[in-house]
Amino acid sequence: MGEASAVNAIQLFRTIVDNPIMRRILRGFSKHCDKDGGNRLEIALELIVGVRKKACFKCQISKKILAPIIRVAAKGFGVPDSKMKEKFADPAWRRGLVNVIRGIGWFGVRHPFVPGAPFQIVWNITKACNLKCIHCYESAGGKKDPDELSTEDVLKGIDRLADAGCVILAFSGGEPTIHPDILKFIKHAHQKGIYAAVATNGLAFASRETVKEYKRAGLEFAQISLDAAHAEVHDKFRGVPGAFEKTVKGIKNCVDEGLFVEVAMTITKANYKEMPATVELADKLGARWFMLYNFVPVGRGVEIIDLDLTPDEREQVLTLCWEKMKTMRIDLLSTAPQFAKVAQDIEERNMKLHKESSSRDVVPTHFYNPQLSGQLKRLADFIGGCGAGRFYMSIEPNGDLYPCVFFPHEKQVKVGNLLTDDFEPIWRYNELLWECRDKDKLAENCRSCKYKYTCGGCRARAYNYFHNVCAPDPGCTLNKEYWLKLKNMKNRHVN
Ligand code: SF4
Ligand code: SF4
């Protein structure tokens, strides 16, 4: 299928679904069906892909409406029918598609896109930790907080997230593996059809038996932090000698047990030169993704704010990352949304020089590198950059909700509590979440930047430096004047 006809199909898809009548119908059909025990759209999809044979009359109608829309969308993305059925046999994919459809129903086809519920939630399940990392956003330590939710309340919270339509739930901390009931939580999320992940320092996974237990519980994805390719640099960051060795073993064990493994490295002035060697190590260990974490001055990170990279240093490391990806098996991503700007600049330059893209047909985004070519790269505007409050949200050990884990625990940016508030109205109407999502609300220079939909700046860095969620991200070369201003201020604002 040619790109022009693919784009036409996408436009046709937009015309079909992005109008008030169809959006109303989609909202109506995205409700819970008591007879069939699930979201009506999810049940319709089960009927379409054949994993369910019978359903009530209303779910059958929902299938009749959904089937042609899915066909047009699949055509737009150049996916054959058989491939689509194969993908959507997986409950996480079905949940993802339902989330997109509900997003269209509630919010229309926006730039960037807002789904019907967060695609990913990171739940800091405990503040207890077995390491003492100098850059910890959670200021986690040895003990748990006194107000952490009970096991029963966490399970109730998972039910609420499942009902709202969340797709991925990543347990983080502190260190999630030292929570006594973590396996119970993973199992429960998995049984609810949620894709279960952990973000861990990997020490517990140095035991292969432990990895097997997690896998049996339903764990599918492990993000393991590794801040350097050399033990002395990693251990200095992590505050405990011997951590490196166990973490590397943990990565290997997870790979060997067939988990999807992402190695995460937080970059600061103290370790960014280690990036190429750390990518190579992660590649050698068999990890699928390497995620370059942007440093955000929050939690204990405030104490090492002077280790934040300058805009030029960040651009250099992201450029190196993009260039490196062309030669590696492992996929490289970054939580620095400027990765999209850097990659687009490089590719535009290459196009001018060689008249064609010299790179893999990849559109870098904050959490995902979809392989799209030519005009389909326009889809990057929908996927967008910073996902805070848009694709993504975070939960604290006491159930408090924030747009992203890198926001400070201040009442100005707390958007509610999972146990005491109704989740869905927060997602639909909360003002702060809309400030994070709406890129036309950004302050200069992000506001008039041509990358605002694919990057948009890190809203957590903006908030932690300027106490304003719409402020410019001072870590970008296009915002250098703000970085210099901060440098010259004696008491720059950080929390
Ligand atoms: S100015 Fe803002 S939106 Fe533009 S690239 Fe920089 S951080 Fe991203
Ligand atoms: S605020 Fe946005 S860019 Fe920054 S870490 Fe959170 S989701 Fe990523």
Summarize the structure.
It is built from 19 helices and 12 strands. It is an alpha/beta fold and 495 residues long.
Structure, explained:
Helices cover 43% and strands 11% of the residues. It is built from 19 helices and twelve strands. Strand 1 and strand 2 (38-39) form a beta hairpin. Helix 3 (40-49) packs across helix 6 (91-107). It is globular, with a radius of gyration of 22 Å. The model is unreliable at 372-376 (pLDDT under 50). It binds iron/sulfur cluster (2 copies).
Q: Which terms would index this structure?
A:
single chain, 495 residues, alpha/beta, ten-stranded mixed sheet, two-stranded antiparallel sheet, 19 helices, 12 strands, globular, binds iron/sulfur cluster
pLDDT averaged residue by residue: 88
Helix segment tally: 19
Order of adjacent strands in the largest pleated sheet: 9-8-7-6-5-4-3-10-11-12
| Overall helicity | 40-55%
* Terminal CA distance: 52 Å
Overall number of strands: 12
Low-confidence stretches: 372-376
Supply Rg: 22 Å
Chain-wise SSE layout:
Blueprint: H1 3-17, H2 20-29, E1 32-33, E2 38-39, H3 40-49, H4 57-76, H5 81-87, H6 91-107, E3 120-124, H7 151-164, E4 168-172, H8 182-191, E5 195-200, H9 208-217, E6 219-225, H10 231-238, H11 243-256, E7 260-267, H12 275-285, E8 289-294, H13 311-325, E9 331-334, H14 338-354, H15 380-383, E10 392-395, E11 400-402, E12 416-417, H16 423-429, H17 431-437, H18 459-466, H19 480-488
Parallel strand pairs: 3-4, 3-10, 4-5, 5-6, 6-7, 7-8, 8-9
Antiparallel strand pairs: 1-2, 10-11, 11-12
Helix pairs in contact: 1-4, 2-6, 3-4, 3-6, 8-9, 13-14
Bound molecules: iron/sulfur cluster (2 copies).
One iron/sulfur cluster is lined by residues 335, 337, 366, 386-388, 392, 404, 406, 458-460.
